[in-house]
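Lab notebook, bench 4. The sequencing result for the construct came back, and we need a structural model before the next group meeting so we can plan mutations. Quick request posted to the team channel:

Model the 3D structure of this chain.
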Amino acid sequence: MFNLEFMYILVTLSVIFNCVLCFKLTENERRRRRVSNDSSVLDTGIGSIGIYLSNSIQHLPVQRKHYHFRIHHHYHNREKVLKYVDVFPRDITICEGTPGAFCPNGTWALCTKNGAIRCIASLWGTVPCDESFFQHCAQVTLPCTLYTPECRLERRFRKQATFNKDIPCITTLKMYSNLVYVNGTVIAQDLVKIYPPDLFCVIILALPDEATQGEELFERGSKILGELSLRVFGINK
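Done. Here's the predicted structure in token form:
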């Protein structure tokens, strides 16, 4: 009885300590992220594309309990993106989840083995951007929401479900593989390298981010708590 009561108290204290410590860590990390302007699954930028991504980000794959992505597009963190990228057949992997629904209509999701997800369109199908004749834009269709600036005026007079928008390319991607298009995503047709490469416009880049310190601690604490619970209540017997 003494051992049972002692273990029960220990489990309770562990839960309280774990919750308090995780709360403090995650609060500090949120402040650090706000100060350093890092983006994550909760930071998709402003404007119509940012609003769209905040709604569609649920389609990104969750490979573990806490998983973040850093989002990049022309209006958000574009200065941190490479202007030119080479992609070979061995780099491409089948997308997990439904990232095809993450990318706007008019683009496809390209997933690579490093966990990155890119929304791409053929460079030859792009048009000059309004703001710069030398910059390419992909023409996409986005859904209207109550907060989408492009839809506010029109919605007063007629019901508008979608609108068209030109999104500037942030990266020119050189694809050294023939592609197969499946459910809004692309996969390598074979492992044979092609030359010259096909050129694609990348309008959105989602890079996987590591779990925060608080989340790692929470997972470890949950594991320890589970083991203690098994010992106390004999669930494993």
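The first strand starts at residue 68 and ends at 73.
Will bring this to the meeting.
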